[in-house]
């Protein structure tokens, strides 16, 4: 993905996409996903890591509730990554991330991720370009480790919202009593850095795309959720998973209790 | 360290080394180490990872007791890596290792390590050469991650014993009532694979020496412990650590209670 320009990529659903039909299609995909996740868990060979990145109010929480919330929670884990704790700061930046890598059979969703260490930290100049470069290399190595050594399939989604949609959603949080709990004064300060964030995201896409990013137009939640669910469904389907058969009885097996 | 031949490297103390003088020297080094570890903890900038590898009965436990046991346990952690649990097997081989990477200010000792995954597993052909190669690359990346992203200094020691010394020590465990708890029938079977293990170790030295290995002649415990203590001392000394000064009082600081 060389030299992506986010400003040239639409944040809205394609014009030909019909909202009601897309919602119906999503429902069908969610049914499929429920089965596929059960199969993933039963087969116990692969695992899935879903990385959700995006600006504040880009709709990451909504994806978790609406796409992953319909599956059996026994096989789905969600881990948010907020500002690191003191203990986390005393380790390399991938230490806290690696602990939450998915076990075989599991779907792990990252609400933000190791990419924050080359986004917010660069926007605020807490690290220089040289360190960012080293982190890119470390991230690529880490993702390769999960792929090659635990059969982990990684899906990375960038939830692409316009500055206008972001601003409207942040303001909604100051008005809607059901959303006020999400209000954070700092989000408005960060939103002013929208363009710098976009630049840093573009640099991430350039340097960490061995496991490819999917850029998800996210101004319309219904389209965003459809696209992500579809990608997850297609990935799981491509694994050609099978339910394990009963093991052959051993010669000395007790056949009656 | 290209093409090391372990059979050509002595397992005994050099002839000129005097046992009593070496033991006296070790005592002095241990005093220094106690101070250096306190400084490492206080400065809170670096961390030290000590990897102990070697055949069964090569004396890893003794090093931990005699070299690291004299330091303040607040700043020293020991982690043994035995056969992986079911949960560990459901993750990449570095998952359980990374969790025990040292925090800033700490000394972490690994009693066996991620290297078992390219030793015992190769000796028994549980993985093929292609997977071993991938693991070498992953290990090199992992060690680089700790160095570059958490200021971790890594010391890797191979405790080099002769097949004869190993056999004598294993047999001692069948006779000495204070050592019988270490007896494991399987150790005798593994000891028969001595030469294969040596070959796999040589391959490790060839492929994972970006962080260099120290080969420690280990037939004589007094020499082995001296050499390891000296290497740890020299490494900590080279860090030029300093005690942090009192922070400057803030303008609005309360100077009286």
Structure in words:
Two copies of one chain form a homodimer. Chain A has 257 residues and is α/β, with parallel strands linked by helices. Chain A has one domain (6-238): P-loop containing nucleotide triphosphate hydrolases (Rossmann fold), CATH 3.40.50. Helices cover 47% and strands 12% of the residues of chain A. Chain A has ten helices and five strands; from the N terminus they run αβαβααβααβαααβα. Chain A has helices spanning 19-43, 60-68, 86-89, 95-98, 120-123, 129-150, 163-175, 185-191, 194-207, 221-238, and strands at 47-54, 76-80, 107-111, 152-160, 213-217. Chain A is globular.
Order of helices and strands of chain A: HEHEHHEHHEHHHEH
Can you count the helices of chain A?
10
**Estimated radius of gyration of chain A:** 20 Å
> Under CATH, the topology of chain A is which?
Rossmann fold
| Chains forming the largest contact | A-B, 25 and 26 residues
Number of domains of chain A: 1
Structural class of chain A: alpha/beta
Main beta-sheet strand count, sense and barrel state of chain A: 5 strands, parallel
Largest beta sheet of chain A: what is the strand line-up? 2-3-1-4-5
* Oligomer kind: homodimer
Reported CATH architecture of chain A: 3-Layer(aba) Sandwich
Rounded average pLDDT of chain A: 95
How much of the sequence of chain A is in beta strands? 5-15%
What's the CATH C level of chain A? Alpha Beta
**N/C terminus separation of chain A:** 61 Å
Query: Could you tell me the number of beta strands of chain A?
Result: 5
Shape of chain A from CA axes? globular
CATH superfamily of chain A, by name, is P-loop containing nucleotide triphosphate hydrolases
